[in-house]
Structure formats: C-alpha cells, structure tokens
Write a structure and sequence with these properties.
By secondary structure, this protein is an alpha/beta fold. 48% of the residues lie in helices and 11% in strands. Pfam families: Amidohydro_2.
Length: 389
C-alpha cells in the first residue's frame, strides 16, 4: 500500500472513532476559524470550510478574516468578504469583525455589527499593539455594550500578557473575552488571575495536549471552548485531542457537551455558563517510554511546519521507542511509521515549475495530522484503550 493511501486510511479511521468519544447528542461548534487569503500564502474558501465542517459534524463556527494583503484600510474589504460568506452559510458561520487599532477600529466595528457581525477579532502580534494599549478601551466598551465576544490572539510570538488581560476583565466585566490558542503565551499566569471569572474563556486551538490538560487543572471546564484554527489547524486532530483529554479525565457528559459546542452556542445567544471547579489533576504520571516518543515527535514538529526533511531521523527514533511500549501504546507505532513514510516521500517545494508549494503543504499537513494523533494517544491512554487508535 502506498504511503499516501495508508495515511488516508488511518485518518479516515480516526474520524470514525472520534464521535465514539463524545455523547451521541453532542452539538459541535468551533470558536476559531478563518476565511480568505493570508499574506503568508495560507488560504481557505467558503465551500472548503463548509465541506470540512460537514465531514466532521461541526454545526457552527466563529469566523473572521486572515491577515489579508488588502486589509488596509481598517480590514474593510476582508471583513466585507467574510460577512458575505457568513450570510451564504445559512447561519452556520458567525462572523467576527477583525480590527486594526490604527485605522478607525470603532467605526469599522460598528459598520460590521450593522452588517451582521457578532463579535470582534484582535491580533496583537499581527497588528503590532499591546493588550494594554489605551486605544483598546473603547473597543472593549463597545463589545461590552453589545454583549458580543472578543477573540484575542494569545499564542506564540508575544510577550506575557497575564496582568493586562486580568485588568481588562476587571474593568469590563460585561465584555466576553476569548483567549485564543489556550493562552499559551502566558497560560499559567493568566489562568491564576482569571480562573472563575465568568467573562473569560480559552479556546483550545493549540497543538499540545499538555496545554489543555494544564488548563483543565486550573480553570473551570466551562471556560474552555473547542477550536481548531483552520486552515492552520484541522478539525480532525483538534477535536480528537480535546475529546481524548475529556475521556482521559473521565468528565461527565454535560461538561463534554459544553466544551465542544454548548458553551459557545450559549455565548452566541448572549448566555454565559455557570462555572464549576477545575476537573483535571495538577500533576500527571506517564511512562518513560511514552515521554521518549513524545520528545522525538515534539522535536520533529517544527521541521514539519517549516517544510524541512527529517535529516535527524527523529521519526525512526520515535518508532523504535513506540514499538517498546507494548499494549499501552498499541496503534501508535502504525501512526508514526505511516507519518515517517509519507514525510520521506514529500515532493519538492518549488515555485513556478514542478510541484507547487500548495501541494507540498497538503502532503505535509497529512504528516503532521498523523504525528498529532500519535501524540494525543501518548497523553490519553484511557481514550486510546476505550476506542483503539
């Protein structure tokens, strides 16, 4: 069997097992998706997003523009495109207005709200501003007045923002703040300051299962919202990671329903959840073999993301270690072997002639999906045992 076909079969198998980890009546809603064309070359069109949502049973999603080349002035053109696409989606896509603080953010937000936007997206890194920038105060006040959510980038590439975010949530208790990417930029500090605050939420669009496990140990489960960050992330592995973590922690079905969609549906409707205590342990215990495999896969991840070959042989090291794991790591070696074979067959990434960069990226996204599924299984053996990978 070819490497590509084997990878497709494993990913299809993962889709089949995914819903077995969730209550049968679960409504899935994603708090973080994009549409359009980013200046880095990443793109996603309406038909592709809706098809992918259908494939994975996603019923609704918040959506906003990428960092588009024609974003000046004030994201007007990208916002208009997203508003139009959301209108075509039949209510499945809930648009957020993306703002640039240097180009009339209040005017653009009000214009978009009048056209159907139901929230705001802020990206401090891409638009080069700080969370405590005084120009944000009227933006937070506007969202607070409308009871619309504000999704704030809180991932890589930023300085710590814990104190500033906590102060914003205090000054604007009616502003619904969603911190993207599990707030990994300053997660420990942020979680310690905003745990139990009913207006602060964390989306789960991160690649590390440990990031989500740590959040669930320190904040209310009702403060977490499923998110995949498509097209950078993907529904399959993001949802598998979250569902597997919830199975690993053996949380009740109501909590599972809330995190993967119910809480976001409430926020969209203007309703906030009642918060309960954290459900995760502060510390975890994992076998040395599993941690060895994880260390090799974690080291391989930036090579995959940056379109480089496995010159170190990390996949071979991970496969050998996983093969020593016995029944507890059943299924993990097959995922790693398939990812390694597919990676080795990656086409050349070129412009103009030969294989285009887009085809190379599609190929490597499958590689990373397999690697991500393997990493999830390492940290969630209970889920892997219940529904084998």
């Amino acid at each position: 069997m070819s490497a590509s076909r084997h990878a497709d079969e494993l990913l299809d198998r993962a889709r089949g097992r995914l819903r077995l980890l969730l209550p049968s009546d679960t409504v899935l809603a994603d708090a973080h998706t994009h549409l359009g064309l980013d200046e880095d070359g990443m793109r996603l069109d309406l038909a592709s997003l809706l098809d992918d949502m259908d494939l994975h049973g996603i019923e609704r999603a918040l959506v906003f523009p990428l960092n588009e080349p024609d974003r000046h002035p004030g994201y007007r053109a990208p916002n208009d495109r997203v508003l139009g696409w959301a209108a075509e989606s039949g209510g499945r896509l809930v648009p957020l207005a993306r703002l640039d603080l240097s180009e009339d953010p209040i005017g653009e937000a009000e214009r978009c709200f009048a056209a159907g936007a139901r929230g705001i997206k802020l990206h401090p890194r891409a638009q080069a501003f700080a969370v405590d920038d005084s120009r944000l105060e009227p933006v937070f006040a506007l969202a607070e007045r409308h009871r619309f959510p504000i999704l704030i980038h809180a991932g890589r590439g930023m300085p710590p923002i814990g104190e500033a975010l906590a102060q914003v949530s205090e000054r604007h208790p009616g502003a619904i703040l969603i911190l993207a990417h599990a707030a990994i930029v300053d997660q420990g500090r942020i979680a310690s300051l905003v745990a139990g605050r009913p207006n602060v939420f964390f989306d789960t669009s991160t690649w590390g299962a440990v990031d989500v496990l740590a959040l669930l140990a320190h904040v209310s489960p009702e403060q977490l919202l499923f998110a995949a960050d498509v097209p950078y992330g993907n529904f399959l592995t993001s949802l598998t990671m979250l569902a597997s973590i919830l199975e690993q922690l053996d949380v009740d079905d109501d909590i599972r329903r809330g995190i993967v969609g119910g809480t976001l549906e409430g926020i969209i409707a203007g309703e906030l959840p009642t918060l309960s205590p954290p459900v995760g342990p502060v510390e975890g215990s994992y076998r040395h073999t599993a941690m060895r495999v994880h260390s090799y896969l974690a080291a391989a991840t930036p090579l995959i993301w940056t379109r480089q070959p496995d010159v170190i042989g990390l996949m071979g090291l991970a496969l050998t270690a996983a093969s020593e794991g016995g029944d507890e790591l059943a299924g993990v070696p097959e995922l790693i072997e398939a990812a390694g074979r597919l990676w080795a067959e990656a086409p050349a990434s070129v412009d103009g002639q030969g294989t285009p960069i887009s085809a190379w990226a599609t190929h490597m996204r499958k590689v990373y999906a397999l690697v991500h599924l393997a990493q999830v299984a390492l940290f969630c053996p209970r889920a892997a045992a219940r529904v084998p990978v």
